[in-house]
UniProtKB/TrEMBL annotation:
It comes from Sulfuricurvum kujiense (strain ATCC BAA-921 / DSM 16994 / JCM 11577 / YK-1). This is Serine hydrolase family protein. PANTHER family: SERINE HYDROLASE RBBP9 (PTHR15394:SF3). Pfam families: Ser_hydrolase. It comes from the Bacteria.
């Protein structure tokens, strides 16, 4: 069975968020999943998150990593450092723009798109009306990363507020 690491964004992704739902679905099928609460999710620190994620990667050794929102940015920083082991599959869901100017998140921004994502297969999932990344910014990120992109029509930030609790598509992606 594949080992799946799910990394939440700013504020966490507790129930009824799709990440919490997905962790439960994987566990119900006796899958191996790690869905940790990252340090101080409402007032995150890039350095603390990166240290915690590095430790998770080294100890858990996931096959699949699923990032939502700010977790994508932490992953990009780790990739830019180049000190992580590659994973088989990486799902990047609703990353914010690389120059986000939210004061609480200032330690994470700005940054450059990584040249390597440390994954054999990568899929970027964005939305046509994400308040943290426009469709043009998403297209630019896709081009910079050189990955496939799935665009959800009117999916907002692809979180609970935009109706993403149960999300069968993501479970199918993991189990494919």
């Amino acid at each position: 069975m594949l080992k799946v690491l799910i990394l939440h964004g700013w504020g966490g992704s507790d129930d009824p968020h799709w990440q919490a739902w997905l962790a439960g679905e994987i566990a119900k099928d006796y899958g191996t999943v790690s869905f940790p609460l990252l340090d101080n999710p409402h007032f995150p620190s890039k350095n603390r998150w990166m240290k915690q994620i590095k430790s998770l990667l080294n100890d858990f050794r996931p096959d699949i990593v699923i990032c939502h929102s700010l977790a994508n940015i932490a992953w990009f920083h780790l990739c830019n450092e180049g000190e992580i082991s590659p994973v088989k599959r990486l799902l990047l869901v609703a990353p914010p723009h690389l120059t986000c100017e939210i004061e609480t998140l200032k330690t994470f921004f700005p940054l450059e798109a990584p040249k390597a994502l440390f994954a054999e297969e990568v899929l970027l999932v964005t939305s046509t009306d994400d308040p943290y990344m426009s469709t043009q910014e998403a297209a630019e990120l896709q081009k910079a990363l050189g990955v496939e992109m799935k665009v959800i029509e009117n999916g907002g930030h692809i979180n609970t507020a935009s109706g993403y609790g149960e999300w069968p598509w993501v479970k199918e992606w993991v189990l494919q």
